[in-house]
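input
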Amino acid sequence: MQQPVTELDTRFSDRDAVATSWEETRIALEEAELFWISTVRADGRPHVTPLVAVWLDDAIHFATGPGEQKAVNLRANRHVILTTGCNGWERGLDVVVEGEAVQVTDEAFSSVLQRRGR
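output
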C-alpha cells in the first residue's frame, strides 16, 4: 500500500505549523471511537452523520444498512470524507480522511471483524 499523505493547508495554519506525521495520524485513526461521515445527496445537498468505524488492514471500515441515507448517497457518489478528533480549541488532533468508499461484502472478511470484537 502506498503510504497516505498528511497535509496541512498553510492558508489556514500558523506559519510555523507542520503537518502531523502519518504514524501519529494512523494511531489517531486506530484509537478513534467515533467518526463523522460526510456524503452528498442526489440533489447535491451534503449529508453528515456520526459513525462507528474501525481502522483495519490500512483502511477505515464501517457498516451501513442499504436504506440509510449514507448508503443511498454512496451508491450514486462514492466520494466520502470521514473526520474524527476532538472539539477543543487548544488541544487534540483533528483528522480528515478523503477518499472513495468501496463496498465490501466478503463474508470471510466480516467474520474477521467479528472475531476481533469490532
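quick obs: The longest strand covers residues 35-40.
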